[in-house]
Design goal:
There is one protein chain. The protein has 91 residues and is mainly alpha-helical. The chain has a domain at 23-54. Helix content is 64%, strand content 0%. It is built from three helices and no strands. The chain has helices at 2-21, 24-54, 68-74. The longest helix has 31 residues, at 24-54.
């Protein structure tokens, strides 16, 4: 676990050194570019949500939650063994 943490920390430090080596003008350009991409993705998600909820045919079905025990209570368990017999012993 310590090896993984050291590798991750090494990669983070290397990325930080590369970022600091960039000129300030280039750093600002990348920040603006990343923000524009983030804003675009956010806008697309909001439009997608608006379009899907604005659709009148979009309905949600709400029903009782069924569990495994509900299914077994409805259907009696069947024995898959053919011709099996249970012998009672007097004890």
């Amino acid at each position: 676990m310590k090896k993984i943490r050291n590798k991750i920390e090494h990669h983070i430090l290397r990325a930080d050194r590369k970022w600091k080596a960039l000129p300030e003008k280039r750093q600002r350009f990348f920040i603006k570019l990343f923000f524009a991409g983030y804003a675009l993705v956010t806008l697309l998600v909001l439009i997608s949500i608006y379009m899907s909820t604005g659709n009148k045919t979009n309905t949600m079905s709400i029903s009782h939650i069924t569990t495994i025990s509900d299914h077994t209570a409805m259907k009696p368990a069947q024995d898959n063994k053919v011709g099996s017999t249970i012998k009672k012993t007097d004890g």
